[in-house]
Q: What sequence folds into this?
């Protein structure tokens, strides 16, 4: 059941993202901020692995992203540990967590209703909203003209024989026009803070801005817009986004920030959160051996691109020596963001 607790913050928080970066963000916020004021906006274009397969088999929206949000927003660590222990088991080739999402959507005759049913089942106070209720596929085109059809192919592009080593992504697009979920538009407009978490840029973050109404809702919302920079590039989709400014330029493009600057004289992006921890050479070498590199923080160039942007540097990273993974510290990250004016 929900924990009886006095929370340090009572802010209307909306996160827009996907993947492990989104999970990390939400774990921090649900510890420090009143949970019923938190909303996670999840993507609906998964095409690979179990989530994508269930989408085809069951005729539903892919459950992977919103089910990960559901787990992240469990307030009790013991509840989360039990849920992960039980729901990671597989039946018929699918993790139980995804099957649960699929069955709930079908039982409730809709994904919004299915998610709310699961929130009641697990006594989750925070909200989870799919960015769109339209069944869409995410595609991409590279600078050399190669088309990558469906999200899973973009996600695994470094292993694709059609993808040249010197090539990079030029654009992403949805296969059909998709209107935003009205509930997503409403919470964005009312938020005190809109958070863009770390994550795979072209498959977890930027696609939200392809959904009709989302960029405009963010632009005209009253709340502060806070983006969190990735710690490292990957060997695939974002290997060319080697600096903060390169990431920022692409984000601005999909947000429509250049046009906003022309009209308003300043960027719509209020804060860019970056890590300033020293990362051990040995740890970096492990990542570099896998084609991943530290993202350069070129502060001056970012400020030129986005007038009025504040770049906030802090010690945010933690390293798990057993899994050899660098991650943002959930509570340090949440504390920093929630304390911003």
A:
């Amino acid at each position: 059941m929900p924990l009886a607790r006095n929370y340090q913050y009572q802010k209307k928080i909306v996160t827009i993202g996907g993947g492990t970066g989104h999970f990390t963000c939400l774990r921090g916020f649900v510890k420090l901020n009143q949970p019923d004021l938190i909303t996670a906006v999840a993507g609906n274009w998964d095409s690979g692995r179990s989530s994508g397969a269930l989408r085809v088999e069951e005729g539903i929206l892919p459950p992977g992203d919103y089910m990960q949000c559901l787990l992240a927003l469990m307030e009790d660590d013991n509840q989360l540990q039990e849920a992960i222990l039980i729901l990671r088991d597989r039946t018929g080739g699918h993790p139980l967590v995804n099957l649960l999402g699929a069955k709930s959507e079908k039982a409730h005759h809709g994904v919004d209703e299915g998610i709310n049913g699961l929130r009641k089942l697990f006594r989750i106070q925070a909200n989870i909203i799919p960015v769109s209720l339209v069944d869409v596929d995410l595609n991409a085109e590279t600078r050399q003209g190669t088309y990558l059809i469906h999200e899973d192919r973009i996600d695994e592009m470094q292993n694709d024989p059609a993808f040249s080593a010197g090539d990079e992504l030029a654009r992403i697009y949805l296969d059909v026009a998709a209107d935003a979920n009205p509930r997503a538009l409403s919470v964005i407009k009312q938020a005190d803070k809109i958070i863009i978490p770390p994550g795979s840029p072209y498959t977890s973050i930027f696609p939200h801005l392809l959904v009709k109404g989302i960029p405009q809702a963010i632009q005209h919302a009253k709340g502060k817009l806070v983006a969190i920079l990735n710690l490292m590039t990957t060997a695939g989709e974002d290997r060319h986004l080697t600096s903060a400014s390169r990431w920022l330029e692409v984000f601005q493009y999909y947000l429509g920030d250049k046009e906003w600057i022309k009209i308003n004289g300043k960027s719509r992006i209020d804060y860019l959160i970056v890590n300033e921890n020293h990362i051990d050479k040995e740890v970096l070498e492990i990542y570099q051996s896998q084609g991943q590199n530290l993202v350069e923080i070129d502060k001056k160039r970012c400020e030129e691109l986005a007038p009025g942007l504040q770049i906030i540097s802090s010690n945010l990273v933690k390293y798990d020596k057993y899994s050899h993974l660098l991650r943002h510290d959930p509570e340090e990250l949440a504390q920093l963001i929630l304390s911003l004016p």
Summary: The domain at 13-43+131-136+176-339 is CATH 3.40.50.10680 (Rossmann fold). The chain has two domains: 13-43+131-136+176-339, 46-126. The longest helix spans residues 19-32. The mean pLDDT is 95.
